[in-house]
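ok here's the first one, seq then struct tokens
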Amino acid sequence: MTPNFPKQLIAPLSAFDNKIELTLSEQGMICDCNIPTGDLFGYRRGASAWGHISELMPELAAIKLMRDGQINPRLRFLSHIGHRFQLISLGGKLFDVKFFIRAIENQGQRYLRAMIFPFEVGFNAVGSNG
């Protein structure tokens, strides 16, 4: 794991437990998060407004999340190839992360589910050590 990734997320039970999980509106506003994420970033479950995903991941300010009612193909491609995104903590520290996004529906409302994983040391987009 990246040695600087927040200690709360370093020792997972499995690789899938070591993630930040956010529920976003189609416009990118954070609506909900998993409990460790809320603790890590100071979000309160049920809060009415948490801000835009780009406040945590500045690169996403320049990329539309949705295009023609679907997840932006460029964003889907970047996450598929293992693009190294940066996550910024409340204290301003940057972490390299992998970002995955998918559309979900709940009670007739469409949302986006974002999953953010620490970027493993020695991994690159083609999967070789480097």
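and now the second one, same deal
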Amino acid sequence: MSSTTVIRFLRFLAKLFLSGLLLSGLSCNSRSAPNNPSADSNISSQACLENLDLKELDQALLRCNSVVSQHQNDPEPLNDRSLIYTLLGQTNLACQDVSKGLQLLNQQGASADPMVRHELTVRKDSCMQHLNMTGKG
């Protein structure tokens, strides 16, 4: 097997793995979010992915940007926005959110949500793989 074939195969596997993670993240409601977040300035920290329409990712990003700005010390909105960035193909921005989210988690210590920690850790691994594949790592 040539090195080009091996690289293509590894890239295929990475994309397949990431796609599976993204789909499982979209379909899994492990975190309980309110069904009717208020439209005022007290938007829930879990509102980024509520009613997510994959055909309207730009709108989802705008909503998520608002959530992130209103919950600056919460890693969960950053985690959610990283998924939207990934779906939009903006991997570098997704990885920046993952890094910021992990920093916030570390500040929270033992009180941090273990599910958010797990999701961000998986996304960090994906970012590292992306950096290695693009030669930036």
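notes on #2: Residues 27-40 have pLDDT under 50 and may be disordered. The longest helix spans residues 3-27.
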